[in-house]
C-alpha cells in the first residue's frame, strides 16, 4: 500500500477509540463510500460498499483497501469503460484541487439486472490541505428507469403525434393551438408556426361555431370527459372542409383541464359522397325537385307538425294538360325539357318553406305549410299564369303548355296526409273536367 499522510492518519485512527466512531459513521450511510489517498488508493470502505461487493462477487469477501481506484478505472473494459475513463479524470481533478467536486452518472449492470449509480467525489481536507478524496456511489436505478420509461413514453407519443395519418393538436383551454402535427398542417394549408398563433375559432365555419363552443364549454366544466362532432373548418385558401373532431382533456393535479387533445379527421370527401347519395335518394333526376318518396316523407312531417300546433296546411296537385300530345308530337326529349322548365316555374312561384315533388309522369305535388285556402288559390293561379305565358323554345319549334291544379286544405278529422292528397287529386280532376288550365278548390260535391 502506498504511503501517504492520509494512510498514516487512518492507521493512527484505527489505533484509538476515535476510529470506532468514524467507522460507525461511514458504515451507517446507505450510500457506498470509499476514502482515497492522494494517489487514488482506497484506504477505507464502508459497510454498504462491502455488502454490495459480496452480493455481486458470488458471496466472496473482496478486500478493497489497498486497491488503486484510479488504476481500476483507467484499465476498465466493457460497456462502462467510457464512463470509467471520465471517472479517473474527474477524480484526479479533485485530488489535485482543480475542482471542489465531481459528479457523473454511470451504468453498472450485472448479468441479471440493470443498475445505475451517481458517483460524487469531494476532496478530503486535513489541516487545510487536500489529503485524499471521499467518493460516494449513490444508487439511482429507480430514477433512471423512471426517466427512461418517461422518455420512451414521450417518444411513443411524439412519434404517434407526428406520424399520425389524421390531424392532431394540443389545444389550450381557450382554444389556442399549442402544438400541431404535419397531417393537420397539410389539411388546413398552414405551417405549424402559423397555426400555433391561431385558435380553433379562427378556422371554424361560422355556422358551426356555436356548436363547437357549446361542446368545449361542457368539457371545460367537467360535464363530459370528451366529445365528438362533425364540423366544418375554413382552410387557408378559403374553402370549407368537413371534419370529424374528437376532443378529450388532459387534467392538471386538481382535475382541471390543462390542455386538450384534439384528433381531426378529414371527412370532406365522405361527406360530399353522402350528400350526393342523399341527393340521388331524394331528388327526381330529371327535374331536380323532390322525388315521390321524399316528397311524401316531407308531407308526413308537415302534416303532423300542423296537427300538433294547429296551423293551416294546403296541398296542390298540378298536372300538365295534354302532356301526352307534347311527347307524341315533339318527342320525349322535348317533353323532358317541358317538365324541367315547368318544375322551375313552380319553384319561382313558391316560398322557401314550401315543398314541391314530382309524383309521377307530368304530375307534381306542392305542399304549402301555414297557408289558408285563399292564399293557396293565389299561388296556384300564379303558377297557371306563369305556365301559360311561357314559350318552351326548342330551336326549330316553340311549345306551349297549360296546367290544371287541384287544391285542398287540412281538416280537423284528417288522420294522414293521404286524406289531404286525395281531396287535392279529386279537385284536380274537376279542373280537368271543366276545361283545364285552371285551379279548383275541393268541395264536397267534387
Automatic annotation (TrEMBL):
Domain GGDEF: start-end pairs: 311-444
Pfam families linked to this entry: GGDEF, PAS_3, PAS_4
GO molecular function per UniProt: catalytic activity
Domain (PAC): residue spans on this chain: 227-279
InterPro entries assigned: DGC-Regulatory_Protein, GGDEF_dom, Nucleotide_cyclase, PAC, PAS, PAS-assoc_C, PAS-like_dom_sf, PAS_4
Domain of life: Bacteria
Domain annotation PAS: ranges: 153-223
SMART domains according to UniProt: GGDEF, PAC, PAS
Protein name per its UniProtKB record: Diguanylate cyclase
